Amino acid sequence: MDIGNWVLEPNTALTRFCVSPPREEQFAEFFAGEAMDMAMDYRFQNGSGPQEDAFCRRIFRQQMAERTVELSEAIARTHVSYTGESDTVSFSSFQRVPFHVQRWLELELHATEAGSYPFQLSTCGGARLWCNEQAVAKFTPFSRNKMQSCELMLPLQAGKNTLLIHLEELFERDTVFALRFIYQGCVPLGVSLPQTDAAVLDELSLFAGAMRPELTARDNQVRIRLGANAPTQPVSLSGEIHGMGNDNFTPRQVDFGTATPDGQLLTLSLPAEIGSAHYQIVLRMSCAGVSITRSFGVNLMPSPGHAEHSTSLDERKLKALSHTARYGMERTSRLLAMLQCGETTAEADRLLLDTLKRISAREDCSDFSLVPLLWIWREHNGEHFPAALWRRVRSSILGYRYWMDEQGNDVMWFWSENHTLCFHTAQYLAGQMFPDELFLASGRSGEEQRAIAALRLAQWFDAIELYGFVEWNSAPYYPVDYIGLFALYQLAEDAWVRQRAKGLIDRLMLLSSLHYQDGIAAGTMGRVYEKELLAGVLTELSAYGNVAWGGGWYNRKCASLPLFCASDYQPPVAADSYARLSQGSLSAFYQAGGGNIVVWKEPGVSLSSCINHHPGQRGHQQHLMDVQFATHHDAKFWVNHPGEAEPGGEQRPSYWSGNGVLPQLMQVENRALQFWQLPADTAFPWTHLYLPADAFEQVITLPRTCLVRAGNAFAVIGCSAPLNAVTTGMTAGNEYRAQAHHVAWFTEVGHGDDAAFAAFCQRMETLVVSIEDQQAVVSTAQGELMRLDWQGKCLVEGVVHRFPDAAGCDPIVTWSGEAQ
What we know:
Elements: E1 6-8, E2 18-19, E3 23-26, H1 55-64, E4 79-80, E5 89-90, E6 93-111, E7 115-124, E8 126-131, E9 134-139, E10 148-156, E11 159-175, E12 178-183, E13 189-192, H2 198-209, E14 211-213, E15 216-217, E16 221-226, E17 235-243, E18 252-259, E19 265-269, E20 277-287, E21 290-300, H3 313-327, H4 332-341, H5 346-360, H6 366-380, H7 387-398, H8 417-433, E22 438-439, E23 444-445, H9 446-467, H10 478-491, H11 495-515, E24 516-517, E25 520-521, H12 530-534, H13 540-549, H14 561-566, H15 573-579, E26 585-592, E27 595-602, E28 605-611, E29 625-629, E30 636-640, E31 664-668, E32 671-677, E33 686-690, E34 698-702, E35 705-710, E36 713-719, E37 724-725, E38 735-739, E39 742-751, H16 754-764, E40 768-772, E41 775-780, E42 783-789, E43 794-796, E44 799-801, E45 812-816
Parallel strand pairs: 15-21
Antiparallel strand pairs: 1-13, 2-4, 2-6, 3-6, 5-12, 6-11, 6-13, 7-10, 7-12, 8-9, 8-11, 14-16, 16-19, 17-18, 17-20, 20-21, 22-23, 24-25, 26-27, 26-45, 27-28, 28-29, 29-30, 30-33, 31-32, 32-39, 33-38, 34-35, 35-36, 36-39, 37-38, 40-41, 41-42, 42-43, 43-44
């Protein structure tokens, strides 16, 4: 085709558009809203929520679906969409309050003959289309996070046609806002973009598409490996830095300078005041009037070295409070740490004002801020801040919406075990502190609020004590559970509430200590993101371990650690021996939220798994098998089936976090066997091993086996399919793939001196992992080691092994060798 700059073949998607910046307006902020009468059974499941639309979405659909949008409302299209390998243009993001977001997209289609040309339009949100300034389609389902499709015919004239698209959506927390536009005709069409140099865009897109950011950044330097030269004309680099998670980081605008045309490595310098944490970089590349944007996440790592050793829990608590007061993330618990340490500066004033803003706006996750604010009211009322500001604190507490049965128009999330606990805790403590005051959203007195919350807390405790945490051993979410638990333990006036809170804190401490490995909160987890898996040293749960048992690091995370440090709580004595295991080995079994957990630990290495967990089903954020060594926080590995195409994504499951398809899995002491049966139509017909070679002293690779050593610990990873090392891109040196729909991966870990490692290697030289009669089989020249079928029956050296029937939510722990 000789018209247009690019060819649109049949059954392919349009992905290049000139795109406007967003027009964002808070939606329906003056609506009083409504109360929802939804029963909760307190059997939590990750990823589940209400089936009905929120009040704000119902109002949004009523007001927006049939309204008229005029071409005169269009916003200038200033940059070009970038989708990478995807066929979908996405503007997905996260908003803590309801926001109406609009975008305008434009492109030119070229046809050799006039006629009607078929397309399939799919959107999360709503779309309106104009062709040559004539309205041709309106598709406004506005179904949250669910792609809807329609068929349409575009009336194209011979030659150039201008297509303008208006997209809009209501943002509620994490929101998919996307467009997929697939051509279904028989003859190719031409495509161009108005006032866009096609050659420059091709160069810029190639440059952006070949970028492979290193997900770990040090010394405030983000390194990006370049697979293609920069365009011949200068490329200016700018962007924004956003926090990831609930750390309330204020975004920063950054000018990164100019990219060199022939560089193999691009280094982005982050502002000096940016501390170690998880960040998202929104990188804008502009060249000769053409601009595209690409986003990626990075873990900005702290300087190496352990925290100062202290044998005193009280000393470690004080040091952690001081560290958080000075360097913590911008959370309400940091304000508590500052007040505890007497560091009441202008920064404290700002943190309080930010807290009140979040709570008064009823932002999503504001329940995580309200609980420590109630602690501050109880323990520091009248200190530092003027009386007028304390009155505002009181007003924010009385004006809050504490549960879905109270009137509101917001997108707060009530349905996960951590949010449910924080809402019930906040309602209980607020009612306790203001028993005779009127709470505006409910119309109840404080005493009524406290009594209702006490009943709800009892239901929550009943479920969690019986079934365990669905988000078992979770590095991002145990610290959120601790927000509610420590506040109840320290502040509740009812003895039964304090006692039940302490019981669960004790349980969590015991379970975490089993997985704690020389400063790192490791292990299988019921819910986790890539950022925590790839940077365990940055997690708050690791900092918890350092305060509780020593041997680790302080960091900037502070959802609840200051509550632990400001309390009089002391972990169980047994937890100390589990966490600081110095001799022998331990095995442990426990149940958690539908998962059966097996732990094996020696001083130099730990292996843990969630076994027989919904094999063959789609996963969410369950991290089923984990190996962590003691020598370095990066010395770890795991195997999973990816849920999306590239690392650093936000899908659940993602590339490294969770499983697109869950395996059958069994662990017996220091051995684990995973067995996948991937469907024929899976988008990713392979599983992969995360193995950061630089973190190990030795890595020995064979066609289907890897042997690794770190200090006096070692492991083998064997596979039933050939292992292909990834040598290019962002995971080069860290990833091995196995291309197979039916595949088994075997892991065995050990501990010992040079002679022990040599003997281990010699034994594993003959390791064979295979699939035989729908069973995964592992053997060496000495005989069969392990066998696992799809129903979960497991034999180890011919002996059947099962998860102990007696195992419950509190761990069964056994020792071998000299354990103390």
